[in-house]
Amino acid sequence: MNRVCLLGSTGFIGRSLASHFDQTGVDWVGVSRSVDDAKSYSLELNGVERVIELISDCPVVVNASGSLKPADFATDFPNAMGRFWEDQRQLNNMLVSANVRRLIHISSAGTVYGEARGNGSREDDMLNPKSWYGRSKQIEEALLSETMRKTGGEFVCARVSNPFGNEDASHHGFLDVLINCIRNRNEFIAGFPRHALRDFIYAPAMAEMVANIALSDVSGVYNVACGKSIELEQLLSFVESNFDGVKIKREACICSTDVVSSVISIDKYLRHFGEVEKNNISVYQYVKSELIDIAI
């Protein structure tokens, strides 16, 4: 089995992938800016040259790195773009120096497609990101694809949609933030249009899909999602109806950069790999299990 180098191994998505690799016996090594596990190396402490050596020893590299959030571009656009560009420059230089043969890049399905069209956004749809965060993801995809083309390596892009349920990072994303607010008896501020749709995928299922893609011989773009979107208002109503002491404040929100309807097609993944075999639970099953102690 090919050894995998996991960039961003201590981030939200990286942690899920690392856990899946451990559970399935995949030989892997991690690289991150902040390190708190024995299998990862610190880019800051070990230096770029050592990281290049690590990457060079791995036939497969998974890029789950990225510290910027959508809010960073709204609050300080010049600084966010500066950080984004510097990170891309460093990553591209490392990939070229390490002569990477196969790169799996994690992108954001929830932002790069823009508003959903038809039966769901497909990999060959024109990208139409509304936010600068989404635009940066599109630029990132293009830069890395071109880098791998020039070096003769394989490029695979996994566009991931709204993962939830990472036990090591329970304050990330709409669903887990909602659950933590309820647990702590805090008010949850819901600022989105009533008809907003999201495709949520359970983090272990997401990790399984990305690993299947990474350890195969496919190339190109693959969506990684549940394939079934739900209305956020329906989710909030479910929580209010089934759990005690829930405090939710709805605010009218009209933001030109927010995607309202995110619907993702995973037909391409299903054709190549079939259904996710393990760890795939629904949003409602997850909410029930996490809040069972305060159910009405």
Automatic annotation (TrEMBL):
Protein name, entry field: NAD-dependent epimerase/dehydratase family protein
Signal peptide: none
Ranges for domain NAD-dependent epimerase/dehydratase: 4-225
Organism: Amphritea pacifica
Cited InterPro entries: Epimerase_deHydtase, Lipid_A_modif_metabolic_enz, NAD(P)-bd_dom_sf
